[in-house]
Write a structure and sequence with these properties.
Strand order of the largest sheet: 3-2-1-4-5
Number of strands: 10
Largest sheet: 5 strands, mixed
Helix content: 40-55%
Oligomer: single chain
Bound molecules: 5'-O-[(R)-(carboxyoxy)(hydroxy)phosphoryl]adenosine, zinc ion
Radius of gyration: 20 Å
Shape: globular
Strand content: 15-25%
Number of helices: 10
Length: 357
């Protein structure tokens, strides 16, 4: 089965062609990701600019993906597109394009949940079996989820305020390190002393594997204001302290989640899959390797290009759904919000803006 996948839910315009063999192995035939650069001067993604850039570039990106796979539309069995959650203008561009292609070719359409696409990527790259534990850490999401099957998710923990990538981006903005902030903070942290400036380690020890990063953000701002003007060493030490706090928090939360996973799936050796842009952070990856090794669990981190937003994960999620006989009508709606686990209680009341799902 050969699926064209389209991703436009944030600031990457992406398309890919993925093959799924009858026994379930996957192969990426092409993957084109165009990161939009129009947002950097604003220090964050501007939804209207993103949607417009998707309109301008998506047709070319799809044509290139087909070309690189050595196919035309006739060689594709189905069209999959992210239908949410995400910035609704962008989602509409990708989904509407997919609908038009499906209608014109008579091929099935699959409306993919972007989070499900992240969640299933490790089955494409490493062929892992259900159930497994997923740590999803991106600019918009921070969740620990038990993945029981396609369409079957149990959220064990989430953030009650900022997403982890957002915390990296806000720290970078505060310290004038540019956008996106994750790689810049990681680079500065490598030169700093994590022990000089003490920062809080929020949520450590809490009985559910949830996260909170807004207090940490406030603490950094206060430390930065107290030391202004900041020397390069101050910036490096603040980044190092921030990253070290994040690593400690993640280790604690993941340790707890692995215990919950073992309790809920006795006899199954836990596998932790990490997805989302923050998975590219080497300090976090190293700490996760240590935590999973101590807990007797296997760690699977797909390559960075498949951890950040891309079309291959969408095509693959589409292929997994099609293999189960699942596809969508042409009137399927785009969704700004679309939790993986519809039954998870929102953690409203914690953060100022409520929960993020
Ligand atoms: O998954 P992603 O590409 O987009 C979505 O948010 O869906 O994730 C982007 C996020 C940004 O917040 C970026 O700062 C963060 O991932 N990120 C990192 C690193 N590389 C990217 N955070 C920490 N360390 C990194 N090396
Ligand atoms: Zn994403």
């Amino acid at each position: 089965m050969i699926v064209l996948g389209i991703e436009t839910s944030c600031d990457e315009t992406a398309a890919a062609v993925v093959l799924r063999a009858p026994e379930g192995q996957g192969r990426i035939l092409s993957s084109v990701v165009l990161s939009q650069d129009a947002h950097a001067i604003y220090g964050g993604v501007v939804p209207e600019l993103a949607a417009r850039a998707h309109v301008d570039r998506l047709d070319d990106v799809i044509a290139t993906a087909l070309d690189e796979a050595g196919l035309d539309l006739a060689g594709v069995d189905a069209i999959a597109a992210t239908a949410g959650p995400g910035l609704i203008g962008g989602v509409l561009v990708g989904l509407t394009t997919a609908k038009a292609l499906a209608m014109a070719t008579g091929k099935p359409l699959v409306a993919v949940n972007h989070l499900e696409a992240h969640a299933l990527t490790a089955r494409l790259t490493d062929g892992i079996a259900f159930p497994y534990l997923l740590l999803l850490v991106s600019g918009g999401h921070t969740q620990i989820v038990r993945v029981d099957g396609v369409g079957r998710y149990r959220r064990l923990g989430t953030t009650i305020d900022d997403a982890l990538g957002e915390a990296f981006d806000k720290t970078a903005k505060l310290l004038d390190l540019g956008y996106p902030g994750g790689p810049a903070v990681e680079a500065a942290a490598a030169k700093g002393d994590p022990g000089r400036i003490p920062l809080p380690r929020p949520m450590i020890g809490r009985p559910t594997p949830d996260f909170s990063f807004s207090g940490l953000k406030t603490a950094i701002r206060q430390e930065a204001e107290r030391r202004a003007p900041l020397s390069p060493a101050d910036v490096a030490d603040l980044c190092a302290a921030f990253q070290s706090s994040i690593c400690a928090v993640i280790a604690d939360r993941v340790r707890l989640a692995l215990g919950l996973f073992r309790d809920s799936a006795p006899g199954i050796d836990p596998v932790l899959v990490v997805a989302g842009g923050v998975a590219a952070n080497r300090a976090i990856a190293a700490r996760l390797a240590e935590t999973t090794a101590k807990a007797g669990a296997r760690l699977v981190v797909p390559p960075p290009v498949l951890c950040t937003d891309n079309g291959a994960m969408v095509a693959w999620a589409g292929a997994e759904r099609l293999a189960l006989g699942l596809s969508d009508d042409l009137d399927v709606a785009a969704r700004a919000r679309w939790p993986l686990d519809a039954e998870a209680e929102p953690l409203v009341g914690y953060g100022r803006l409520g929960t993020k799902v």
